[in-house]
Write a structure and sequence with these properties.
Structural class: mainly beta
Mean pLDDT: 90
Strand content: over 45%
Low-confidence stretches: 1-32
Number of helices: 1
Number of strands: 34
Radius of gyration: 32 Å
Distance between the termini: 116 Å
Length: 452
């Protein structure tokens, strides 16, 4: 008996020694990256590991076991009335705790209907990483047009290989109707699919037409807004915006314009550069041509204590508005160049700048810098209108000597306007002299009143 027990003890030690000798340092082992490929989001219930965060009215979401497209249940979203104190729209995001590998699919699909004809925004690729951070790196979405009957909707995936560890499964948002009334939406059969029938994919830099074709600022930046279109099984071409994370960008001449991985184009000098965006083996190109580099406006020299600034990065600005009054046709953009904001106008008619009863009693002059891009003009005057709350509206035509292609700094004595007092100024208008050729494209900077 002792002999048998001794043998057993020896065998036990042999096993323990064998196990110990097989142990190794696991800190250097590669981390497993095989994520689940589960395509389902919601069929008759939620897929494993799915979480939900609500936006707007948090009680707007429920599972409906009486209305469905297929199976036994659907998701129901109650869009509240516009004046609902608990929230005036319904929305939310479905995401997973563990990433999924969705690279084997080419679209997110779902069925939906509503109690009325209404739009709804739907997307995939976004999720809350923490309370303070919302990830949208690979978010793709579109506005769908819901009716009172079930329809299938397809959101194409621009490049499925990018979604090999995705957590954002489905997001939606919808607001009240134009009359302020709410309604109900049902969504069912939400899943990722490999359709294999999305045909003729194309991409386009949709805003390339707004890039400079003649003059512009060195240092000015432009976004690349890329749109993808595919032919759906129904024969309809569906467009979706493609985030920069799906794309590869290149510039044909980085001395003229560079482009970073986020698709931000920066003008570097004169010449022509083609900015190319590639989505896999699909490409599109936008062009920047800079024949004349516009210099920065002159640096203001007045002490800040002597200035009331309407628009300038050299001084603190008062609150202003540039309203669209009758006959205002301006397309106004404000863009930064090396930390300095500039007003850019196309289709310029006249610029009203309004402010709340400004006390300019101590001010003696109005200043602004103007650069005309088009048309070609020489020594052209400019019309100015200034209004106070007491003396009414006064206009003057100043022999400014504005010439296309160079900055003109104007310093106009406020006494020229003949206002009864300057204690409650209300608006300033800058316009072309009606007797002269019309300025259509121009830049404006450093608009302020000052004391000489």
């Amino acid at each position: 008996m002792r002999k048998i027990q001794f043998k057993n003890i020896i065998a036990l030690f042999a096993i323990l020694f064998l196990v110990a000798s097989c142990e190794r340092d696991t800190t250097q082992l590669p981390i497993a990256t095989n994520y689940p490929t589960t395509p389902d989001v919601f069929l008759d219930g939620f897929s494993s590991g799915l979480k939900f965060d609500a936006w707007g009215k948090v009680t707007a979401f429920d599972v409906d076991y009486t209305v469905n497209y297929k199976g036994t249940a659907s998701m129901k979203f109650e869009v509240p009335n516009a004046n609902d104190p608990a929230g005036n729209f319904a929305g939310g995001v479905f995401y997973t705790s563990m990433p999924r590998d969705l690279s084997g699919y080419d679209a997110l699909t779902f069925w939906a209907k509503a109690t009325t004809i209404t739009p709804m925004n739907a997307s995939f690729g976004s999720y809350p990483e923490s309370q303070a951070k919302f990830v949208t790196t690979f978010q793709v979405g579109m506005e769908v047009k819901l009716t009172t009957t079930w329809q299938k909707f397809i959101i194409p995936i621009p490049d499925p290989s990018k979604l090999n560890k995705e957590r954002g499964m489905f997001s939606y948002s919808a607001g009240a109707l134009s009359d302020g009334l709410g309604y109900t939406i049902w969504v069912d059969e939400v899943k990722f699919e490999k359709l294999g029938t999305l045909a003729h994919p194309k991409i386009l830099i949709s805003n390339a037409s707004s890039w400079p074709t003649s003059s512009g600022f060195v240092g000015q930046t432009y976004n690349t807004n890329v749109v993808m279109s595919v032919n759906l099984p129904s024969g309809v071409f569906q467009e979706v915006n493609v985030p920069a994370s799906y794309l590869t960008f290149t510039s044909s001449d980085s001395n003229v314009a560079s482009v970073d991985e986020a698709g931000l184009v920066t003008v570097k000098g004169t010449g022509t550069a083609n900015i190319t965006a590639n989505l896999g083996d699909i490409s599109t190109t936008g062009k920047i041509t800079l024949t004349k580099a516009v210099p920065m406006a002159p640096t203001p020299l007045q002490p800040a204590a002597n200035v009331i600034s309407l628009f300038s990065d050299a001084y603190p600005n008062v609150s202003i508005d540039t309203p669209k009054w009758d006959y205002v046709t301006n397309i106004l953009n404000i863009f930064p160049i090396s930390g300095n904001n500039i007003m850019s106008f196309s289709k310029f008619s006249y610029l009203p700048i309004t402010f709340a009863n400004m006390d300019a009693s101590a001010m003696t002059h109005l200043h602004f810098d103007i650069y005309v891009v088009a048309p070609q003009i020489t020594n052209q005057p400019v019309k100015l209108v200034l209004k106070d709350a007491v003396g009414g509206e006064k206009s003057i035509t100043n022999s400014a000597g504005i010439t296309t292609g160079s900055w003109k700094s104007l310093d106009i004595p406020l006494s020229n306007f003949g206002l009864s007092q300057k204690s409650a100024l209300q608006f300033l208008i800058i316009a072309a002299d009606p007797q002269s050729p019309k300025m259509t494209d121009l830049y404006l900077d450093n608009v302020y009143f000052y004391k000489n």
